[in-house]
Request: fold
Amino acid sequence: MSHDSRTNTIPVIDISQPSEAVARQVLEAASTQGFLYIKNDGVTIACKDIDDMFKLSQEFFATPKERKAEYAIHTEKAGGINRGWVSMQGESLDPEGQKSLQHRSPNPNLQPLPHPLSSHKDLISRFQLSCHALCTSILSLLGTALQISDPSYFASRHDQSQGPSGTIFRMLYYPKTTTSTSASPSSSSGSGLRIRAGAHSDYGSITLLFRLPGQPGLELLTPDRGWVAVPVNPHPADLAEPPILVNIGDLLSFWTNGMLKSTVHRVAFSEGGAGAGAGGKGEGEGEERYSMAYFCHPLDDVQLAAVPSKLIEDFADRGVEELRMQRKRLGLNDGGEDGDKEKVLTAKQHLDRRLKVTYGI
Ligand SMILES: O=C(O)CCC(=O)C(=O)O
Ligand SMILES: [Fe+2]
Reply:
């Protein structure tokens, strides 16, 4: 498996005019690669808000470490479990330096936020709500394409006005690495590759990922071609704005008998430059990197029973082995620690299991 500039064929889908044909395109990508791009129409999520959020993130991560540490993850000041500032090596999937701030989301009454975020609550709320609106559109298209009798089956179970959920918005910063960290055996592949976020799949239903042109590094694991780079903008000549990258998380995979794919991905930089350089003109310079991820989760008490869709029922036999492997990879016993194979988990129980594996809490 070599690290090179092979790209993949993740489609860019325009969902601004939703139709059954568009829904089928979304399902096709979600059930094969587990990744798709949504053309950024600038309406659901304002381009200026994305730019302003990145500027805010850069300002935040530039503040002194002691200031950020006051809002450390899981502390009361930062809003409790799975909220707050994560420094280097705070996560098990984080071998060489990724820093992040986790927001409970979307929430107009934002958790206590550190400077300078505390002065930009309107922007942060608006951005998170617009992310959620995009997730809702994607979930509705999936419901349509799966021919569920209620096409809003997924979307309504993610209606955040109906109760708490595990939805998290995360601002990420990968600092420039130093010589000493690059020598670390856990983080270097020995082939000039630095792993900045270890191989993992996401916990939730769907994730929206925002990256900056010139800062690639994301790779997904394909069954036939190994690690493949995911460019920030796959068609820079046609798309003035990078499309929004969407990936399916574990939960939507479990929920659909493995029909939708929760694909393993990582962030890796080659020595002397970020990413595999596969993302178009100007990419591959510098090692510092910022990204933002919106991890959309269903309401805590949603039961993750198989979705009432003929397509999913028909898929059940094929998905069995895949789901078994996925549970194993995630450190989840078959049926859970309580050994109850048939038990239907709620979204919260599922998230708690993943957090336990990641943070040991
Ligand atoms: O920074 C990135 O591009 C991806 C981060 C990621 O995969 C995650 O936080 O789950
Ligand atoms: Fe991820």
In short: The two ends are 34 Å apart (CA to CA). The first helix runs from residue 20 to 32. The mean pLDDT is 81. The CA atoms of residues 258 and 322 lie 7 Å apart.
